[in-house]
């Protein structure tokens, strides 16, 4: 069952220098219980895409268009078209979000218990004691030792990994069907990263929820995701299931990303390979492929087609599509 | 906590001892004779001067004088003997020959006036400053914000005596909205209505400048806090906007206000000299200014010491309060 279907989502931020086109006409969907990874470098539009769906972008500063059909507990809604006050009822209940930096994402002046109880109370008309029980249950589930007494602790009394566990407990308190995890492990030690990722995986199974995992770490993606969307300059440039993407990346950018990851199963060379150049200015995007100026395989396409025409996202094999003239099927 | 408070009280006592000694040293080495001043500006009779010198203890060595002063604070002090005996019970801050009264009595008459003025102004400027600051931050760039900017500009640039005089001229003299408040201060317990009526304009005068400062401060604090990650978390939980702003944002933004307000309040308790002078209120500020003009040393020493005591004590109170407001602040 399709849980969320995003169509033609664009987000622009008007600035004195012109409109910053952070997200450009992207479409994707996610099924219930599935894990979709969104990968890309900083500024590629990963986070903005999800903040737009959550209604967390300031409507005064962001121009948003497109649709996002979501199967909520009250039926289908359009996350992008719905009244902001209405959307607030689904936020934290049907869709939850955890953020990159657990050190700053919890309110420093309220105890973690109060913050989780608040998240439960706002969507459930129950006695605060019921919410408290629920909070203790969730804290135990995410691996906080002795949750009944830790519930009165404040965020600064926890380590980074523990705080991210608290964030996860808070996000899951209302049994959401979709969890958006925005770089949940970026700010954590590598060993703690692994713990948090495996915790997310266990909880995903237990809560039967879909997860959108935003990251720039392809190592995280390989272990955690079912499908991957690669984003570049506000567009999806490749979409595939995780095995296909790693086995035969169709877009030179994806190839570049994979080559820049250190691997144990390859001979050690002195340096990791990097993609030369810079991402394009999001104010004046090039006419052709956004990646063309940095592309190492541009000579494989005749003429200067890559610099003139933007390739479409086309299907290569089953459920594997890419935005590149190289390897396009004949007639596609 | 208790050990912290008692330690801080000990330090406070030492600070006050230091302040009192410094004040005493300054006045001891000023190039005029306190005994000569006691019999009026045109008094040349050496007999009276010497008699007064003995009565007031100015004949004693400097350190002994200081010791007698400190002793008087705790056990009271008597001046002269026989029929001319004057007794100032503890806590005695000395005897003013010009006013023919114990300084403690003078201060206990003036303090309630200054206290009434300062408390009323504090309430007024907090309500206006916080209210307007929050509104300006919420509706940044809109009409309220622009209006508040103008208010801040006027409030911070108009000197208190000008505001006070203009209020007097227009509200009292030209438009007859309030009766002329000269010199007839009425204690709150005697007639609350009269009390408020007399203090109304002084409150506004004093609060005006502070309210402007606080508006500016609160506005930027709220804007800064709104950009915190934990405010985004609060929104992501699905909290209504009223709670995001009223609870999560204000709680963090207003914490520094407590420190600011505490210290500003302490500063005012030392005497709001200009406002008291313009409105002819018999408060500490006017007592001090009058004493300076008349070289009335005991009063100058006492008011200086009192102002220092208030500031030091308020600092302690603010520090303790802050530990309750911000759980990250540990008192030990």
Main sheet properties of chain B: 2 strands, antiparallel
Write the CATH homologous superfamily of the domain at 103-327 in chain B. MetI-like
Strand numbers in spatial order across the main sheet of chain A: 6-7-8-3-9-10-12-11
Overall pLDDT of chain B: 85
CATH topology of the largest domain in chain A: Rossmann fold
* Helical content class of chain A: 25-40%
Say how many strands of chain B there are: 4
Largest sheet of chain A: 8 strands, mixed
CATH topology of the domain at 103-327 in chain B, anyone? Answer: MetI-like fold
Count of alpha and pi helical runs of chain A: 12
What does the radius of gyration of chain B come to? 24 Å
CATH class of the domain at 103-327 in chain B: Mainly Alpha
Total number of distinct structural domains of chain A: 2
Strand order of the largest sheet of chain B: 1-2
Structural class of chain B: mainly alpha
| Relevant CATH superfamily of the largest domain in chain A | P-loop containing nucleotide triphosphate hydrolases
Pfam families (chain B): BPD_transp_1, BPD_transp_1_N
Keywords (chain B): Cell membrane, Membrane, Transmembrane, Transmembrane helix, Transport
Membrane topology (chain B): Multi-pass membrane protein
GO cellular component, one term (chain B): plasma membrane
């Amino acid at each position: 069952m399709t849980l969320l279907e995003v169509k033609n989502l664009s987000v622009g931020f008007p600035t004195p220098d012109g409109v910053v086109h952070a997200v450009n006409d992207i479409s994707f969907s996610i099924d219930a219980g599935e894990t979709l990874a969104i990968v890309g470098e900083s500024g590629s539009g990963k986070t903005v895409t999800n903040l737009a769906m959550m209604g967390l972008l300031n409507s005064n500063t962001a121009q948003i268009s497109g649709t996002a059909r979501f199967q909520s507990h009250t039926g289908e809604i359009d996350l992008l078209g719905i009244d902001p006050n209405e959307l607030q009822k689904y936020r934290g209940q049907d869709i939850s979000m955890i953020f990159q930096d657990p050190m700053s994402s919890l309110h420093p002046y309220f105890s973690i218990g109060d913050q989780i109880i608040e998240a439960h109370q706002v969507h459930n008309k129950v006695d605060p004691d019921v919410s408290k029980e629920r909070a203790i249950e969730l804290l135990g589930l995410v691996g906080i030792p002795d949750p009944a007494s830790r519930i009165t602790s404040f965020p600064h009394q926890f380590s980074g990994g523990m705080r991210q566990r608290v964030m996860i407990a808070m996000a899951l308190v209302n049994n959401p069907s979709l969890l958006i995890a925005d770089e949940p492990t970026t700010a954590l030690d590598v060993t703690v990263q692994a713990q948090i990722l495996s915790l997310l995986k266990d909880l995903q199974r237990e809560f039967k929820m879909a997860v959108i995992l935003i990251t720039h770490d392809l190592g995280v993606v390989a272990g955690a995701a079912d499908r991957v969307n690669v984003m570049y300059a506000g567009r999806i440039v490749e979409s595939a299931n995780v095995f296909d993407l790693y086995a035969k990346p169709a877009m030179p950018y994806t190839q570049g990303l994979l080559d820049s990851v250190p691997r144990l199963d390859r001979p050690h060379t002195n340096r990791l390979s990097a993609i030369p150049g810079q991402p394009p200015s999001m104010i004046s995007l090039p006419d052709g492929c956004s990646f063309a100026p940095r592309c190492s395989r541009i000579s494989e396409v005749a003429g200067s087609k890559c610099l003139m025409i933007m390739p479409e996202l086309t299907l290569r094999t089953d459920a594997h599509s890419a935005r590149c003239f190289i390897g396009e099927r004949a007639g596609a | 906590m208790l050990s912290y408070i008692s330690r801080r009280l000990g330090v406070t006592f030492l600070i006050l001892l230091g302040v009192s000694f410094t004040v005493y040293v300054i006045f001891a080495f000023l190039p005029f004779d306190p005994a000569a001043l006691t019999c009026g500006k045109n008094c040349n009779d050496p007999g009276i001067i010497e008699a007064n010198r003995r009565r007031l203890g100015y004949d004693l060595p400097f350190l002994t004088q200081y010791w007698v002063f400190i002793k008087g604070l705790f056990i009271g002090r008597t001046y002269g003997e026989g029929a001319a005996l004057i007794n100032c019970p503890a806590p005695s801050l000395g005897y003013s020959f010009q006013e023919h009264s114990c300084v403690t009595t003078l201060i206990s008459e003036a303090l309630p006036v200054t206290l009434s003025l300062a408390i009323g102004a504090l309430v007024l400027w907090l309500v206006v400053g916080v209210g307007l600051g929050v509104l300006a931050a919420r509706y940044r760039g809109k009409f309220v914000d622009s209006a508040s900017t103008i208010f801040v500009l006027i409030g911070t640039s108009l000197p208190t005596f000008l505001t006070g005089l203009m209020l007097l001229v227009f509200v009292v003299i030209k438009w007859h909205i309030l009766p002329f408040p000269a010199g007839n201060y009425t204690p709150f317990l005697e007639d609350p209505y009269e009390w408020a009526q007399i203090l109304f304009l002084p409150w506004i005068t004093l609060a005006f400048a502070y309210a402007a400062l606080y508006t500016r401060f609160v506005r930027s604090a709220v804007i800064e806090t709104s950009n915190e990650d934990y405010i985004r978390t609060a929104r992501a939980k699905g909290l209504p906007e009223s709670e995001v702003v009223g609870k999560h944002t204000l709680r963090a933004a207003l914490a520094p206000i407590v420190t600011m307000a505490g210290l500003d309040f302490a500063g005012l308790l030392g005497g709001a000299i200009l406002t008291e002078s313009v409105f002819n209120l018999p408060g500490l500020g006017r007592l001090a200014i009058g004493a300076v003009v008349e070289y009335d040393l005991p009063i100058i020493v006492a008011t200086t010491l009192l102002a220092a005591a208030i500031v030091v004590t308020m600092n302690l109170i603010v520090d303790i309060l802050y530990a309750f407001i911000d759980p990250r602040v540990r008192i030990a």
